[in-house]
Design a protein that fits this description.
Blueprint lengths: L7 E7 L3 E6 H13 L4 E4 L5 H6 L2 H4 L3 E6 L2 E11 L4 H20 L2 E13 L5
Helix pairs in contact: 1-4
Length: 127
Amino acid sequence: MSENDKSLIELEENESIGEVKIADEVVATIAAIAATEVAGVDSVAGNMTNEMLGKLGMKNLSRGVKVSVEEGHVSVDLTLVMKYGYSIPQVSAKVQDKVKETIDNMTGLSVLDVNIKIAGVALEEEE
């Protein structure tokens, strides 16, 4: 890969058809969306809820997510805000499973680990 391709993950190369590359930021976005789909997760760091993720541009989607790729293996670091009243260990385990499964299904990349940092707890707003 060239200097400009540092943030791209090469999935496969087929000389007769071409190559498939995925930007690191795309993998981070997949992780952020998967995490916010788990009950008990209020948002990804930066106060980004699942509803907001769909409305914002690509650059904002991966805030609070760090992706490291080495030799086709992915490590993900997520910073989350949890909802009050949920078990942090149980929700974290569900997030890890969901993020790993989603990245694997969408990209075919092997996820080595999903590390979670809890940045806060959000209280339910009364209507």
